[in-house]
UniProtKB/TrEMBL annotation:
Organism annotation: Arcicella gelida
Database matches in InterPro entries: Cyt_c-like_dom, Cyt_c-like_dom_sf, Cyt_c_oxase-like_su1_dom, Cyt_c_oxase-like_su1_sf, Cyt_C_Oxase_1, Cyt_c_Oxase_su1_BS, Cyt_c_oxidase_cbb3_su1, Cyt_c_oxidase_monohaem-su/FixO
Pathway where it operates: Energy metabolism; oxidative phosphorylation
Protein family according to the UniProt entry: Belongs to the heme-copper respiratory oxidase family.
Protein name, UniProt field: cytochrome-c oxidase
Catalytic activity: 4 Fe(II)-[cytochrome c] + O2 + 8 H(+)(in) = 4 Fe(III)-[cytochrome c] + 2 H2O + 4 H(+)(out)
EC number: 7.1.1.9
Spans traversing the lipid bilayer: 21-45, 65-84, 96-119, 131-153, 160-187, 207-228, 240-257, 277-297, 309-325, 345-367, 387-405, 437-459, 502-523
Highest taxon, organism lineage: Bacteria
Localization terms from the record: Cell membrane
Amino acid sequence: MSAINTNVEHFEYDNKIVRNFALASIIFAIVGLLVGVLIATQLFMPSANFTQYFTFGRIRALHTNAVIFAFVGNAIFAGMYYSLQRLCKARLYSDLLSKIHFWGWQLIILSAAITLPLGLSTSKEYAELEWPIDVAIALIWVVFGINMFGTILKRRERHLYVAIWFYIATFVTVAMLHIVNSLAIPVSWTKSYSIYAGVQDALVQWWYGHNAVAFFLTTPFLGLMYYYLPKMANRPVYSYKLSILHFWSLIFLYIWAGPHHLLYTSLPDWAQSLGTVFSIMLIAPSWGGMINGLLTLRGAWDSVREDPRLKMMVVGITAYGMATFEGPMLSLKNINAIAHYTDWIPAHVHVGALGWNGFLSFAIMYYMIPKIYGNQMFSKKLMNAHFWLGTLGILFWAVPMYIAGFTQGMMWKEFTAEGNLKYASFLETTLQIIPMYMMRALGGVFYLSGALIGAYNIFKTMLAGKLIANEAAQAPALEKVFVAQGSDTYWHRWLERKPMPLLVGALVVVAIGSMIELMPTLMVKSNVPTIASVMPYTPLELEGRDLYIREGCVSCHSQMIRPFRSETERYGEYSKAGEFVYDHPFLWGSKRTGPDLHREGGKYPDSWHYHHMREPSSMSPGSIMPAYDWLLSQKLNIADTKNKLKAMKTLGVPYDDYAIAHGEEDLKIQAKGIADNLAKEGIKVTPDKEIIALIAYLQRIGTDIKKGQQ
């Protein structure tokens, strides 16, 4: 070993960038939660859909993006940049890159806030943003990565602490997930089509969707937990060896679990089974992390009673444990058969989102802000009030939704003694759970109220102090040393000192599962058998499908009939993989607030759909669906129809040159036919209106096969 290093270097931590991300996180927490309360209200009060730009279908994606990427995303960057500098004993690599990262991320969020209410959406869950914004996300993520690795490489601390392992895995995996899932063919600056179709698109999307939860909402927060919890409790992490096991097993197993979102769908059985097996195994590393966190508090539980930050951490870590136990349980087919498409799933998600992500984010703010402002939090009482309101909010949100979800699952499957569906009308189940929706909205108000108190407390703390923008620090310069090979952790000690091999190792570990899971379905045709009678959409139907995507109908309606007697009795023949080969993107949905639509085509006359969109309750008394009356008056934009057909042809959809050249002409002929049908029933509407295209699409869905056709 070398002699003690006396070459002490002086430097400064950049607290300004931490402050900026923290402020953005707090502001967007209020915005995201406010939109959440609004959409919760819309589900029992349709009149709250007060404009076409703020309907549930459009702003649900605004809520998820605002909470995940704006509130939580900014909190992640604030927490990482604060901890990374102190763990590396170095200022961030580049002040310029820090500023580009901050302002670039806020511009991306602003772009999402503008485009999603306008209906500019890919419809892919947690990845709804259109391609120019996706490109911007990739570029800013690279800026973040360069800044992070530059800081690590110039560190004065030899050992890469466990938190940094999780930061590295987050960077490399999110980059891979985002790029692969976002691949699309642009039609214009505001429209694109996923390069994947149907079953393949569903698999790639939920490989992304599940692992967006894993590597954006879990791994960075585990890294933050490993740094901030010991700091708050003034205790070392419970087990170093457990943290090694936790890290590598978690990132390896998590990446395989995405197909459990697609059980009993048209996804090949082998992929479904693979997702289930790895989901069950995922309990071990997930609970390993929870246990490592909670046992770090051994001997410090008196502090938990007194410190609101530790209360939040404990409830957050416990919520993580609950959610990561429930997830594998929901991947069991017998449980999934009841829970999937019900409100059980949002309840499960929000236990993690509100408890784990929300509480940890605020606890970290409560720790960082006084540190960088050189004072104490303005009010401990307000911190406690925030904690209890937030906890009540979680309970009032989740418990009613668990009840609602189980009620839905049971009612959908119940038969009478005579063998008929007991609740044949889907609306009967919806009306039964409206009181639960009201309680959920109340829970959202509680949680939002706590966040408002937290924001006030933090702003008052800032006003009472002064930002230490450049915090003075010192540390010895880094010198080479050698680790004794006889130690049982030699291999990992070596790895912890080599950030680039650690990066490569993490990439290899997550890539293994990704390739084995995705490649067979993307490359082997027998995984997605075709059906000869399935034809591409007509130009008018394609435009109608894009309107369906614009209005966010997939948020409430699935297009996937599972092979259960209860579903085939209610909706019709179960869905086949070959029916979706021309669907760019897939529209299977993940939640049924309304009935499944995969056999909607030909079920009702055109006039029924017209009146249903004009005033849903006129066709379905008691419906909570909002009116879409603007579709009746707005003119269909067909300026990009030819380009859409060309893009689809590029993706392998068999449109010939004649069909593309005469696309607009064929569209107008089909539109006139629908308008004439409506006129026969006394409905006067010109063929150029959006409602005509939407009716064309709805009347087409699921009509390509006859009952029993394979």
